[in-house]
Amino acid sequence: MTPEKKSGVISLIIGLMGFVFLIIYSKSVFLTYMGTALFTPFMIYGLGMLLNPNTRRKEEGQIPFRGW
Amino acid sequence: MYVVSSISSIIDALSYALYAFLIGGLLLGFHRKIIARIQGRPGPPIIQYLIHTFKFYIKEITFPITAGNPLYLFVALMDVMVWMSALFIGMVFESSLLILVGLYVLQKIVEHGCGLSSGSPYGKLGGVRSVFSAAAEVPLFAVVGIIYILTNSLMIGDILNYQAINGPIMFKLPLATFAFFILLVSKAPYSPFGIVKDKCIVSGYLTEHYGTLESIIMISDAIAWFVLLWLFIALFIGPAIALNPILTLIGMVALTIIISLICAITPLLTPNHSVMLQILIASLTIVDLLYRVVH
């Protein structure tokens, strides 16, 4: 798994755990809104990484070779 | 019981954020269109900003070798956190103006973080210029002080109530209104104060944030544009417009047109001129604040 994909999966897990925590434990509307602001970016990034095409890089940190 | 109300609050919050993103994105597209028309070009379609955001969202990203992770990744996410929080604190809860100012200052950390974590010389220059352009925030503090002296409160709800009784603050505090308007101009793309995204340093702090990360930053920029326009309307024009969604939209379009005119006909200032002008406006606002404290 590439580091990019790994970061996306970790973000998705953090986002999902955050939302589950909010749904179960949050008793204040204000905290729920702020929690949503905190965890939504993780979900956006995680979903975005899942939608990304598979990398064509051979080695880490190098862009794919596209010809001379 | 808590579960149902929490889910409903989360859906409400996400709906607000989506609304702000769509409206902000359309306004930024409209901004580009007006600039193009003034310069005699047809310009991109108004939905171009949204199209770009969705296009970049599904583009591959790579972490540059020079990037300092996890900061490189986290600053982009932090940008959305900052502006979603500002949206909820300002528009939904009509809470403290000081928290909003604090969040606006956090935006600077995002700019520094983006630029410096990437390891790119262009990004670093963008980050350094972002430090210079912190001069744009000085009038913001003076504006907050003047508003407090006039209304005796920094809660946005109280400021709206004050205006419902006494009329728009815009006519009572023209200099503060002007200073806040300059802040809006500074935040606009292609603005004369936009030294952070100057084309001579490629894309400034955004240079190494591409693909999904750029899309995330574009989402937060759209929300930021919506929040800043709403804040201007709420603080200076009053509840008659700020609490009516249709009139708010009309107000935002009008403000975007005025700012686009300024952006279209003014060249980008050099960093020292940009800072000098902003400091000058800040000084005037601070003099106004001191005058009001004494009298």
Give short descriptive properties of this protein.
A: 68 residues; mainly alpha; B: mainly alpha; 13 helices
User: Most extensive interface: pair and counts?
Assistant: A-B, 34 and 41 residues
- Listing every helix as H and every strand as E from the N terminus to the C terminus, the arrangement of chain B reads HHHHHHHHHHHHH
Poorly predicted parts of chain A:
none
> How many strands, which pairing sense, and closed or not: the largest β-sheet of chain B?
none
Estimate the strand proportion of chain B.
under 5%
Describe this structure in words.
The complex is a heterodimer of chains A (68) and B (295). Chain A has two helices and no strands. By secondary structure, chain A is mainly alpha-helical. Chain A has helices spanning 3-25, 29-51. Chain A is elongated, with a radius of gyration of 17 Å. The relative contact order of chain A is 0.20. In chain A, helix 1 (3-25) runs antiparallel to helix 2. With 295 residues, chain B is mostly helical. Helices cover 75% and strands 0% of the residues of chain B. Chain B has 13 helices and no strands. Chain B has helices spanning 2-38, 48-57, 71-92, 97-118, 121-132, 138-151, 156-166, 169-172, 174-187, 212-237, 239-242, 245-265, 271-294. In chain B, helix 1 crosses helix 3 (71-92) and helix 3 packs antiparallel against helix 4. The longest helix of chain B has 37 residues, at 2-38. The model of chain B has no long low-confidence stretch (mean pLDDT 87). The A-B interface holds A 3-4, 7, 11, 19, 22-27, 29-30, 32-34, 36-38, 40-42, 44-45, 48-49, 51-53, 55, 57, 60-61, 63 and B 2-3, 5-7, 9-10, 12-14, 17, 57-65, 69-70, 73, 76-81, 84-85, 87-88, 92-93, 211-213, 215-216, 219.
